[in-house]
Design a protein that fits this description.
By secondary structure, this protein is of the alpha+beta class. The chain folds into three domains: 17-121, Gcn5-related N-acetyltransferase (GNAT) (Aminopeptidase, 3-Layer(aba) Sandwich), CATH 3.40.630; 145-305, 3-Layer(aba) Sandwich (Aminopeptidase), CATH 3.40.630; 314-407, SCP2 sterol-binding domain (Nonspecific Lipid-transfer Protein, Chain A), CATH 3.30.1050. Helix content is 26%, strand content 31%. It has eleven helices and 19 strands. The protein has helices at 26-36, 43-55, 104-119, 175-189, 198-205, 259-269, 289-292, 315-321, 370-377, 383-388, 399-407; strands spanning 17-20, 57-63, 66-80, 83-95, 123-126, 139-141, 144-151, 167-170, 220-224, 231-238, 247-256, 275-284, 299-306, 309-312, 328-335, 344-351, 354-359, 366-369, 393-394. The protein has a seven-stranded mixed beta sheet, sandwiched between helices. It starts with 16 loop residues before the first strand and ends in a 12-residue tail after the last helix. Residues 2-12 have low confidence and may be disordered. The structure holds coenzyme A. The site of coenzyme A has 18 residues, from strand 4 and helix 3.
């Protein structure tokens, strides 16, 4: 990332200056992150974070030679309806406790927008530690995930007959080659997923240790079918407690080409000996499991949370790159207080074969904030819903409904990869 002087602001005078964090500063970047996130990195986790940072674009806020703010960006290809787009996958966003609320994060993001423009990334995305932070910067919650729990102290009741094909456990090291095609197919169905290379599979999907729960065992990969799998699950287990709390199966990922294959995998996970609970922490709200469960007291949604926060850094590039489910011709009045090129009135002509988006002086049919447009972009939120919530204003009757139909996707967007 390039060096940019920042405008002066703040309690004690000028902002720090922003520049790329060179490779030989990664050690101090990790010290900074561990301070800010109140975490102690053991040697293995430190090595893993180091490998991740090496592959990211890294931007630092420096006061003289001291690092006081950090932002890193994975170079992602994010699936969007009908294709994929380059996306800055933000991580390690952190400002030193001594430098909070002085505009450091705002300065880092200003720099990031410039970096996205020069590197051709129309999207930026992140998983937020606190939901209140990012709306002001134009990020909208574009995917919503559920935590699903199965009481597996009794056999799982399903209304679908499980695929009787063989199940086998495979070495996680061989998983990327074996599972890659199934994952790619799933990614084409559901917008919001980053493409994965071997590194991403190993570090983000199949790390040896679960970062949030060191009592969970290593990742296990089970696949269904002879030869080319028709489905797979990645899971970890934890032993029960002496007080009678049953052992746990934590499902990190489950993808299946058919309902019967999904039924076979869920049945397997719910029947592992010495466990009595299955917890799938990040499932899409339209997971077929919720319909195929014979007893919804046995399969319960225990939580729902915004997952991927999306920023349309270049609204025009983003809207003209996605596919559309139905034609629409609407003038949008978009409010973007951070990126001037996105702000104003634009005519969107959407058609199943593609769309155009050009500045116009015509009156607006629908007004909305750029963060709410981002929430709609992958198909997870509808403009009509925004109008009902008082977050968008419809000036022409039917405009929101036309946009709903155009934005609609067959599957809800989904991204289980937390970064
Ligand atoms: C969150 C964090 C990066 C913000 O950095 P910062 O330099 O203090 O932010 P800024 O001074 O640029 O503040 C920008 C705006 O966001 C607001 N804001 C910052 N942190 C916020 C929070 N946790 N909740 C709500 N609003 C917040 C500020 O009030 C300010 O609002 P304004 O522009 O309307 O005045 C910093 O507090 C931090 O490192 N926190 C701990 C780590 C963390 O939570 N990182 C985010 C991981 S996704």
């Amino acid at each position: 990332m390039s060096t940019q002087p920042a405008p002066g602001r703040g309690r004690t005078g000028d902002l720090p200056h922003f520049r790329e964090v060179p490779e030989n500063h990664i050690g101090r970047a990790l010290d900074h992150a561990s301070l800010v996130f109140h975490e102690t990195y053991d040697d293995e986790l430190r090595r893993r974070h180091r490998r991740a940072l090496l592959r990211c674009d890294r931007l630092g806020a420096y006061e003289e030679d001291r690092l006081v703010g950090l932002l890193a960006a994975h170079r992602l290809q994010l699936s969007v309806p009908g294709g994929q787009l380059p996306c800055a996958g933000l991580t390690f966003i952190s400002v030193a406790p001594t430098h909070r609320r002085r505009g450091v994060l705002s300065g880092l993001l200003e720099e990031l927008w410039r970096h996205c423009a020069t590197t051709g990334r129309p999207l930026a995305a992140l998983w937020a530690s606190e939901a209140a932070i990012y709306g002001r910067y134009g990020f909208g919650a574009a995917t919503s995930l559920c935590t699903v729990e199965i009481d597996s102290r009794r056999p799982l009741g399903l209304r679908v007959t499980p695929d009787p094909g063989p199940l086998r456990l495979v070495d996680p090291a061989g998983a990327p080659a074996l599972l890659g095609p199934l994952h790619e197919a799933a990614r084409a169905r559901r917008a919001g997923w980053p493409a994965r290379d071997r590194h991403w599979w190993r570090e983000q999907v199949l790390p040896e240790e679960d970062e949030d729960d060191d009592e969970l065992g290593p990742p296990r990969v089970v696949v269904l079918g002879h030869g080319t799998p028709t489905g797979y699950a990645v899971y970890r287990t934890r032993d029960g407690d002496d007080d009678g709390t049953p052992g746990l199966v934590q499902v990190d990922e489950l993808e299946a080409g058919t309902a019967q294959a999904a039924a076979a995998l869920w049945s397997y996970l719910a029947s592992i000996d010495l466990t009595g609970r299955v917890r799938a922490w990040g499932r899409p709200a339209d997971d077929p499991l919720l319909l195929m469960a014979a007893d919804r007291d046995q399969v319960r949604v225990t939580g729902q949370f915004p997952a991927l926060w999306l920023r349309l850094v270049d609204v025009r590039a983003a809207l003209t790159a996605r596919s559309w489910a139905a034609p629409a011709d609407v003038v949008l009045d978009v409010r973007d207080t951070r990126i001037a090129a996105n702000h104003g009135r634009f005519r969107l002509v959407a058609a199943p074969g593609g769309g155009t988006y050009e500045a116009t002086s015509a009156p607006a049919d629908l007004s909305l904030d750029v963060c709410d447009l981002a929430a709609c972009y992958l198909g997870g939120t509808s403009p009509s819903h925004l109008v009902r919530a008082g977050l968008a204003t419809e000036h022409t009757a039917g405009a929101a409904a036309a946009l709903d139909a155009a934005l609609r996707t067959e599957y809800l967007p989904f991204a289980g990869d937390e970064f």
